[in-house]
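Worked example 3. Consider a protein that binds flavin-adenine dinucleotide.
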Amino acid sequence: MEAREKIVIVGGGFAGLQLAKTLNNRSKKVIIIDKVNHHMFQPLFYQVACGRIEPSNISFPFRKIFQRSRNVQYRMTEVQRILPEQNKIITEDAEFTYDKLVIATGCKTNFFGNDKMERLAFGMKNTQEAIAIRNHVLLTFEKLIIERKRSDDGNWNIVIVGSGPTGVELAGAFSEMKREILPRDYPHMNFDHLNIILVSSTEAPLSNMSTESQRMSEKYLQELGVDFMSGERVTDYDGDRVFLASGKEIPANNVIWAAGVTGNVIEGLKEEQVLRNRYVVDRFNRVKGTGNIFAVGDIAYMETPRYPQGHPQVANVAINQGRNLAKNMIRNSETEWKPYEYEDRGSMATIGKHRAVVDLPKFKFQGFFAWYFWMFLHLMLILSVRNKLAVFFNWMWSYVNKDSSLRLIILPNKKNTTEQ
Ligand SMILES: Cc1cc2nc3c(=O)[nH]c(=O)nc-3n(C[C@H](O)[C@H](O)[C@H](O)COP(=O)(O)OP(=O)(O)OC[C@H]3O[C@@H](n4cnc5c(N)ncnc54)[C@H](O)[C@@H]3O)c2cc1C
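Given these inputs, the predicted complex is written out as structure tokens:
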């Protein structure tokens, strides 16, 4: 009997997970490797950072997802090197052979080589980082109240760098927290001096969306009291002050960096197979110059006539590339393989309660209806009925009470000997 083809997938994000799910219970042996034990729904990280939802509501253990699978296995380890000549990958604690390898490692925060920024500011690319932001922001208030520090020295300002959807959504959510939640939790503190500052190198927020959405999101930010600093570039941060290219300085000990991402490239492939930290792939997601190595999602760079500069790094592309590749792998012969084509279904962002912007291919709308649309779509995309219900319940609770009870500060146990 012919041995089953062994497909190793590195990364269980939107692309890798969709690929594995489409290959589930098919005649392939699938091993999905991820350095964390759960799939993460990144679009809602900002709500974890602001204490609106529990991390477990948007994190799904791989072992649970594939509990009943006949052919998909999960391994928790970090892949460090690819040995393409030997059809092998090296991880931090083992080696795996493969017939076909799929790289779906996504991106990490890009601090553009600024080590100090990387050390002192927060990124938001995984669950731990979202929890770290929540801890740090809440600890700021706990410390201030004990130290009885003046609140108008600006030190507790929250600065968010980058005005894409992540930056805008965070700014809106922190602003709502400042207005509705913090004064009730800390009745002896005056939050008038807490500034939520969104620094953007572009003139308008959400520069990848329509002009209507940009205009409305700026208006919403203004209504929520967010200080939007446009046309400004952050050059440095010393833990107390953010420095701008214009010479301005902003006092802040909470800085969140949402100004860019870069691919998680694994060592081992040739230089010409990587462009701007993404693997160069053909229309079938096969890495240039290889026969059995593929890349999908954020880490893949695919040029097509409609996308000559590669696809946007968004969930929709990742999910559909994962699905397309899986369907191709199931087909009997490579001559039947279908090239990937991106169908842009639009984009959206929410800035606060009843304030969202939606750009669909033929239709744009903002405000109250857009906010419900955003909530509905995100609920549909979250895995598992239990998590959908939990998120829905938390949202409804905050909607009615203008509050949530998820502001736990969870710090690692000091006795923990494993490095974080
Ligand atoms: C805060 C935030 C908000 C976002 N909001 C939206 C949104 O509203 N709409 C939208 O369309 N997109 C959004 N995105 C982008 C979207 O999340 C990405 O496009 C999508 O996650 C890409 O999927 P992926 O599978 O390529 O990578 P990812 O989902 O990033 O998954 C990569 C996986 O690989 C694992 N991994 C990485 N390196 C290794 C290694 N060496 N060994 C083992 N495992 C490894 C990681 O642990 C991770 O699980 C957002 C992103 C962020 C960070």
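Take a moment to read the result before moving on. Residues 10-16, 33-36, 42-43, 45, 78-79, 104-107, 124-125, 165-166, 264, 266, 297-299, 313-316, 318 surround flavin-adenine dinucleotide (CB under 6 Å). The domain at 115-258 is CATH 3.50.50.60 (FAD/NAD(P)-binding domain).
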